[in-house]
Amino acid sequence: HLSRRLEKVAEYVLHEGTIADIGSDHAYLPVYLVGNGICEYAIAGEVNEGPLASAKEKIRQNQLQDKVEARLGNGLEVLEGRKADTVVVAGMGGPLIADILENGQSYLPDVKRLVLQPNIAADHVRRWLYKNGWSLIEEAAVEEEGHVYEVLCADRSGVNPYSKDEFEKQMWLGPYLMKQRNAAFMSKWKKEYDQLLRIQAQLQMAENARTFERQKEMKQKLTWLEEVL
Ligand code: SAM
């Protein structure tokens, strides 16, 4: 049984071949995918010994040792000597996910799909995708225990349909999420809108050359939100 967040991640994984789950912790996702015959083989990557031990324990409990391999390593380096059809990086901050992809470029040529679930700052991940020949094919916003999680699904169709002006707005809000405008998305951005208003008021009080750029950025973001909310 997966959380709603990981259920959505599982939905976007290619239903074939090998999946690599980077930062797998308890290996819930690989065990679920292989245990249910959705994928044939999985690699659970972990940079830390503690979570790696949890992953190994979970794999053993489910008697999946011959189909799910837990490997110690930083980011995509656990793909050394292996091939994965889908790579998942979930449950980390957007900037860390973008770094893991950037540092792991040499392991990506054989990968067909990326499923990425940034806990915060998803815009870093979206920008990385479009700057590196990937494009979003689907997105979801899922609410769980009061937090809204964004799940991004990308392949190599390599189309960037956005003009320079449109690009930043799309990367910030998510092109598919902006169209769906589901309850989770709306609740996340309504909160963010109120917070931006408060920050803007504070910046206005401290008005000086240093806050000028931030004010411009706030104003832009507030305008984008007014367009979708
Ligand atoms: N992916 C699981 C999920 O979404 O539920 C676990 C998320 S957990 C919050 C993040 C995990 O990523 C931790 O177990 C941490 O050790 C691991 N991690 C952080 N940086 C990593 C890196 N550079 N390479 C591999 N694993 C990493």
TrEMBL record:
SUPFAM superfamilies: S-adenosyl-L-methionine-dependent methyltransferases (SSF53335). One of its GO terms (molecular function) is tRNA (adenine(22)-N1)-methyltransferase activity. Keywords: Methyltransferase, Transferase. Gene3D superfamilies: 1.10.287.1890, Vaccinia Virus protein VP39 (3.40.50.150). GO terms for biological process: methylation. It comes from the Bacteria. The keyword Transport does not apply. PANTHER family: TRNA (ADENINE(22)-N(1))-METHYLTRANSFERASE (PTHR38451:SF1). This is SAM-dependent methyltransferase. It comes from Alkalicoccus luteus.
